[in-house]
Design brief:
The chain is of the alpha+beta class. It has eight helices and ten strands. The chain is globular. It starts with a strand and ends with a helix.
Length: 251
């Protein structure tokens, strides 16, 4: 009998693995709907959807392995990171998906993001989670992400743990529940968060000039907005190489 393994679990959703099948349990039906539609539209490898019976989505395991995780070492060579960059570019060059309402943070308006960021920065300081100088400096850095952008087909949560490779070939990208129309540089920043040493490899595969200041701004913005949520859901943004260290690296 196959063992049931908990991949990730918190109050909003959980992912279990049973043999070669992943079961995603999500009380928000809209997220499941977005994930299934986005995988059907994406021009990059995605997991096979085996069945969907709300609130559970069953998908097949992907071959290969991830490039690593935030706070951990990279498991891929430069060529693998470049291949991931090329796959991200292929996604961004695809026709816009009909998912503007569920674009996630990658597609939030400048006004909405700025307001959320200001509120979150105030809470981080008043609750004593981070020192004021660290928050203030990174809030200034994050301002660089709050500029007009041309919408593209974005994944919306492109952590390195969501991209699988075999050698220098991308075998699949998972977790599409935040997909939609968004800022291309948000995807690139999310993918390289905490792994700045591979940014050049990713951009070489992506194949176009990128404003590095905006990438740095998204690193700060994403980290500032994530820290309190992570703590409240049982994760540790203070672990080496994770969100707090990302903020410190911008000082």
């Amino acid at each position: 009998m196959d063992e049931v393994k908990v991949v990730v679990a918190h109050s909003e959703r959980a992912t279990l693995r049973v043999g070669d099948v992943f079961l995603k349990v999500d009380a928000d039906q809209a997220r499941i709907d977005v994930e299934v539609e986005a995988m059907s539209l994406a021009p990059v490898p995605t997991p096979e959807v085996l069945w969907c019976k709300p609130p559970v989505l069953a998908i097949a395991a992907l071959p290969g392995r991830t490039l690593g995780r935030l706070g951990g070492p990279s498991t891929g060579a430069s060529a693998a990171w470049a291949a991931a960059g090329a796959a991200i570019r292929k996604l961004h060059d695809a026709p816009l998906p009909p998912l503007p309402g569920r674009a996630g943070r990658a597609g939030r308006s400048i006004v909405a993001l700025s307001a959320e960021l200001d509120d979150e920065c105030e809470l981080l300081v008043t609750n004593g989670l981070l020192p004021a100088d660290l928050v203030t400096h990174n809030r200034q850095v994050a301002e660089g992400a709050l500029r007009p952008w041309t919408p593209v087909f974005t994944h919306g949560d492109l952590q390195i743990a969501h991209v699988f490779v075999d050698g220098d070939e991308v075998t699949g990208i998972i977790d599409w529940s935040e997909a939609g129309q968004g800022d291309a540089l948000y995807d690139l920043a999310t993918f390289t968060l905490g792994h700045e040493e591979h940014l050049d490899d990713v951009l070489a595969g992506y194949g176009t000039d990128i404003d590095l200041d905006v990438i740095h701004a998204w690193w700060s913005l994403r980290s500032l907005l994530a820290i309190r949520w992570l703590i409240e859901h049982g994760f540790d943004p203070f672990a080496p190489g994770c969100e707090v260290d990302v903020l410190k690296s911008r000082m």
